[in-house]
Structure formats: structure tokens, C-alpha cells
Design goal:
Blueprint lengths: L29 E5 L3 H7 L4 E8 L2 E8 L2 E7 L4 H16 E2 L4 E2 L7 E10 L9 E9 L13 H14 L9 E4 L2 H7 L4 E7 L20 H6 L2 E2 L2 E7 L2 H11 L2 E11 L10 H15 L4
Parallel strand pairs: 1-4, 1-7, 7-13, 8-10, 10-12
Antiparallel strand pairs: 2-3, 3-4, 5-6, 7-12, 8-9, 8-13, 11-12
Helix pairs in contact: 2-6
Length: about 290
């Protein structure tokens, strides 16, 4: 049985995964992922009890019980580069024996639910709406470094997006992954269903120009016109494509739900969203109690 070298599977002085500071038994089978570390304790405030807490850098983890169901909450920080860290280390915690540095014979599949924020790309999606991502299109390039299994549908959809958007292939080659069907169906009621575009930056890579001119000035119009089998592009954010690609490759289930803070078509923006985020969190928590 092959053993992972210390420079490849990096562990801290306590023998836990290096960035998250987690070891066996520290996380539940269902994990809520958020960007903001302050949101971890906010979600934990709804729990009946908490059995584990840890923080290292921007990665804050809390595990406890909500209405009889064990859940973990982890902050990922911003971007697919951080998702790369979180997904690989979470999988290592549950599927690798950290003492022997070898893969466990029986694999565990986690349920990973991202609750985030985004900008809407269609005029009819108001700020405050909840968007659940049926598909994610990655403009970030992270998945291109791995051998990711793509279905025929995912490959065809990615090719169609490149053609419809007139994608500049001097940039990263886009990839497309679908959410977990079971998690999507569990959580989707009364939400906007769509295709999420994951960018590798907040400004230029999302078509925002402050003082540096854009190389793709028509970026937003080019991507918002894409649809796949009746599902339109709905929003822009910075994490979901890597979450879907890596979780699927590792045998985990994932889905993203975002609160709309900006509409990139009407230019509306909602800076005071704490109450609306709280409402979304409680909605998702309630639905996760039905997960078995």
C-alpha cells in the first residue's frame, strides 16, 4: 500500500491536516461551507450543542448538533484556490489514515453544502433572491490540473458555452460540473435554479473595471446569454466550480446556494444583508434535518 510523503500530505505538529487543523472524528458527514469565518459561529449559534471548534488562518471549523442532526461548518475563505485546500484536506481527514499516511480501505462520502453570496446576471433576479446552482462553469482553471470525470452532458455543455460566449481561449479553458442531484432536489424548493459562473477574481475576472481597462469589455453580456437544456446562466461567484469538480472526483456530494447581493444587469447592490443571510441559513439548516 503506497504511503503519502510528508511533503505531499502535509500535517501539523499534532498530526492533523496542515491548513484546516482537523483530524479523524472532528467533522460530521454533512458539512456547510461558507466563505466568511465570522459566519461559522453565527451558524453555530442555532445549534443545540457544539462538540468541536478550531481555527487556523481563515479556516474556522465548528461541529455540533442541530435538531438531532450532526453538522459541521467550515469557512473556506475566498476563491477556488482555497476550495482546493479545503476539499483535499477534508477528504484526507475522512478517507486517509493520517498516522500511517495510507488510504483507508472503505471510503466515506461527505455531503457538502456551500452557502454564499453572488451577483445575479439576469434582469429578473432581484437582490435578496436565493439561487441554487444546478451547474457550475469554472473560469478558474483549478480542475484542469486534475483528472476529473466529466459526463457526456457536462462535456457537451462546456463546449456549447465556449461557442456561445465566443470564449477567448487565451484565458483558462472553461469546465462545467453538475451539482449532486440528491442535494439539489432536497434544497431547491422556492429557489432560482441556474448555472453559476465561477470566476478567479472579483474585479476584472467578473467584468468589473475600476482603473484598469478590461481585456473583455463585453464579458457579462457574453456569458449571460448561455443556457443549457432550459437552464440559464444566473449568477457569478468565486468557489462553486472547484467545489463541484473536486467533490465529484473524490466521491463526495455537493451543492451551492447563494444569496444575491448584486444584480450585474440593473447594477443594484444590497450591502445590508445580515438578516437575509440569517433567513437563508435557517432555511437550509431546517431542510438538512431531512437528510439521511
Amino acid at each position: 500500500m503506497s504511503k503519502f510523503e510528508a511533503s505531499e500530505l502535509t500535517l501539523d505538529k499534532n498530526g492533523k491536516v496542515y491548513h484546516l487543523g482537523l483530524g479523524e472524528g472532528d467533522v460530521a458527514d454533512t458539512v456547510i461551507l461558507v466563505g466568511d469565518q465570522d459566519r461559522v459561529k453565527f451558524i453555530g449559534s442555532f445549534f443545540d450543542s457544539v462538540r468541536f471548534e478550531n481555527q487556523n488562518r481563515e479556516f474556522c471549523t465548528l461541529t455540533g448538533i442541530f435538531r438531532g442532526k450532526e453538522l459541521s461548518v467550515i469557512s473556506t475563505g475566498i476563491g477556488t484556490d482555497n476550495i482546493d485546500i479545503v476539499l483535499n484536506e477534508l477528504d484526507a481527514v475522512v478517507n486517509i489514515n493520517l498516522e500511517t499516511r495510507t488510504v483507508k480501505p472503505e471510503k466515506k462520502s461527505l455531503n457538502l453544502i456551500r452557502i454564499g453570496t453572488c451577483g445575479a446576471l439576469q434582469e429578473n433576479i432581484a437582490t435578496g433572491a436565493h439561487i441554487i446552482s444546478k451547474y457550475a462553469i469554472g473560469l478558474d482553471g483549478v480542475a484542469n490540473f486534475y483528472q476529473i470525470p466529466y459526463s457526456t452532458d457536462e462535456k457537451q455543455a462546456a463546449e456549447s458555452f465556449i461557442n456561445v460566449s465566443g470564449w477567448n481561449l487565451q484565458l483558462n479553458t472553461p469546465y462545467l460540473k453538475q451539482s449532486s442531484e440528491s442535494l439539489f432536489n432536497l434544497l431547491k424548493a422556492d429557489m432560482v435554479e441556474g448555472i453559476t459562473i465561477t470566476a478567479n477574481g472579483f474585479y476584472g475576472p467578473q467584468g468589473r473595471a475600476i482603473r484598469i481597462p478590461l481585456s473583455l469589455p463585453d464579458f457579462k453580456n457574453a456569458i449571460r446569454k448561455f443556457t443549457w437544456k432550459g437552464t440559464p446562466v444566473t449568477n457569478l461567484e468565486m468557489e462553486t466550480s472547484a467545489l463541484y469538480a473536486l467533490s465529484d472526483a473524490l466521491g463526495h456530494k455537493s451543492v451551492t446556494i447563494c444569496l444575491v447581493l448584486a444584480n450585474r444587469y440593473t447594477n443594484a447592490f444590497e450591502p445590508n444583508y445580515a438578516q437575509k443571510m440569517g433567513d437563508l441559513i435557517q432555511l437550509v439548516l431546517g431542510r438538512l434535518t431531512k437528510l439521511r
